[in-house]
Amino acid sequence: MPTVIPEDSVGLVSPQVAQFAEPLALACGRSLSHYELVYETYGELNAERSNAVLICHALSGHHHAAGYHSMDERKPGWWDSCIGPGKPIDTRKFFVVSLNNLGGCNGSTGPASRNPQTGRVYGSDFPVVTVEDWVNSQALLADRLGISQWAAVIGGSLGGMQALQWTISYPERVRHCLCIASAPKLSAQNIAFNEVARQAILTDPDYRGGDFQEQGVIPKRGLMLARMVGHITYLSDDAMGEKFGRERKSETPNFDLHNVEFQVESYLRYQGEEFSGRFDANTYLLMTKALDYFDPAASQGGDLAKTLSVAKADFCVMSFTTDWRFSPARSREIVDALMAAKKNVSYLEIEAAQGHDAFLIPIPRYLQGFSAYMNRIKV
Q1: Would the pLDDT of 3 be above 70?
Q2: Which sites are catalytic (predicted)?
Q3: 323 noted as active-site residue
Q4: pLDDT, tens only, 72-90
């Protein structure tokens, strides 16, 4: 826990709740009659309302992107290295909005919420949501906050997909789009990894068809396995080797098939255990499906340049050399399409050993490039 709040921190922050009573039509054909979005804000909205920045989170992210909820909080928000005074997203200049998406499990309406029409927990009955649905709900939150146009929409991984979708769905409402460690759609391999993770959850006896919460259980084993599979894909081989190598917990082999022997095994089990205690299984299924479904160019016969031709924003695309989940080649697909569509685009490929997780890490070259682009944005 921080004994003193760092000078470059946004400090103590409190989540806020926006309640919506108008039905939200979803891509799956269903709608939500009532829903809530939990969000945080950092910095001050200027008189012209021209300095607002939206942060879109990745699969397991949430609204708490920066600062501390209390002096007892052990760690700051998940992107604290990039948000705050003097940081790339400088809160002396920008008014930052970070939310927990619909279907999430950190306060916004999701599978663990109660359905106002039945009084029961949604569970398996919560509708499937897409990136486009999230963007539509974010636009309604922007309306509620009096923000007609974002100075920038920023996201990494699944968050980058949302940032990209904003420029397609609401081209007049985005001046700059920063798409980091992302892709224009998932590869077959990525969909396969997501399916393995989902099957780990779906085949857990305690999943109970998705209605585990009302039965007082959680599919802990399935969640642990899903997180372990995911975590392997977020790290590069080099990063895993440097962190763990083949180090054992004891000097000699124990020849036990059932217990942990290597440090990397212990680490993955710890990650799975921690994740299973804080994340909802149905939310995990929803988020991975949203990833799978994302393919904005599908409506244009797969022509991404044509799809992005409606965009009015300037773009900054960033990738990391050892990210094999969302490789630099996928970012370059976006860049090539933007160039073909005659859009202003900057591209930075950062040498980094940390794999996909690099977008969350304060790598000097990354922060330098990020700051340089954000400094160009006029408010």
Answers
A1: no
A2: 157 (nucleophile), 323, 356
A3: yes
A4: 898 999 999 999 999 999 9
* pLDDT greater than 90 at residue 96: yes
Structural domains present in the chain: 16-185+297-376 (3.40.50.1820), 190-288 (1.10.1740.110)
Q: Which two tokens stand for residue 264?
A: 């990397």
Q: What is the mean pLDDT of residues 318-328?
A: 96
Query: One of 98, 323, 327, 331 is an active-site residue; which one?
Result: 323
Q: Known binder of ligand: residue 357? A: yes
Note the pTM of the prediction, 2 decimals.
Answer: 0.95
pLDDT for res 1: 53
Q: Which long-range contacts (CB under 8 A, 24 or more apart) does 115-124 make?
A: 116/33, 116/34, 117/33, 120/214, 121/211, 121/213, 121/214, 122/282, 123/210, 123/211, 123/212, 123/213, 123/214, 123/282, 124/209, 124/210, 124/211, 124/282
Q: Is 356 a catalytic residue?
A: yes
Contact assessment for residue 59 and residue 287, using Cβ atoms and an 8 Å cutoff:
yes
292 is in an annotated binding site: no
Catalytic: 34?
A: no
